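Quick start: load a record and inspect it. Here is Carboxylic ester hydrolase:
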Amino acid sequence: MTLSLVSSLATAHSSCATDGTFPTATVAGGVVIGTTTTYPSAYINKYLGIPFAKSPPVRFSPPQKPLPWSSPLNATKFKPACIQQFISIVYPFINDDFRAIFDNPPLPESEDCLYLNVFAPTGTAVDSGKPVMLWIHGGSLQLGSASVPEYDGSVLTVQQDIIVVTTNYRTNVFGFPTSPQLAPEERNLGFMDQRQALAWVSQNIRAFGGDPSKVTIFGESAGAYSVKQILANLPRPLQFRGAIMQSQALGDQGDGDKSWSALADALGCGLTTSQLDLGDGIHTHTVADVPLLIGTNADEGSILTSVMPDSQTLLEEIFGNDTRSQALARAIYPRNATENELKSRIVTDYLYTCLTSTIASTLNGAGLKVWRYFFNASFPNNRPFPRVGA
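Running the structure step on this input writes:
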């Protein structure tokens, strides 16, 4: 579950543009005023906290188009994160790890959070037609924000000469309420927020020198899952030309109705009874015919090893009483591996590698262009905490 980021943390200093003025752009809602930061041998224009939807959103309702503004919008500071949920009942120790990544320093939180950020090389003309990358953050659909320092788009912008956009979206119960009283298509509000951000990019990115026909969507963990949802539920017209999925983990659908009922009980709210038609257990979709880069890291499971049972118990939980499969699985790992290394490899393969392989081979078999990557480089200066690897 180690973060796999395309860009690394940049050291930047706020300032005005090189000619003493602040950068501006005119989007559908009005004029936005950004800021310029320095990067070794380069400058980056940052437009932070641009509304891509009406804020604050109506609670438990789909996003709406943002209202226009009459005065120039100050887009020089990040807006608050959406409401965060750091508590993990299964693995409480991960709470501190998640806070170290996603809440250091602590981020302001608000329901008024549907904002995005644009990073562009200075001097980029409106008609530059640069490629665009839209980042969707991870966090188990429970937490995360576009303003996390690790998601600063400056390095990627400078090194690749592109436009980078990072976006917030509603998480946890605010983004995925699962109430049986809501229509099924209105339960995944966080995914709708992401689509609204993508639509905003398609409509407005020319103002920053980007080409709306050259948009790539990319995300990590829950962000990769979000990318998959966009691929399988196509926006019309198609608003991107490529996709990158980083470190998506295997998961189950869970019982949303039961979770909603538990929340309502905890808050002392009554629920009316309702009946819903049962849906198909296996869903089929038409997938976007765009190039896909998909991959995993070598040590995705390392963060979980201290709370996992021993390796043999892990194999029994995965394969049940199938001792032959247990033995075959154990045989593929080095005999001299430590217990923690073995557990990390098992969890990594079971939760990440196998799923990635299945997705890649299935899409490739359907005629889509798919590339896989495997990242196994580990550097002490970019580890979020000591016990994780690549």
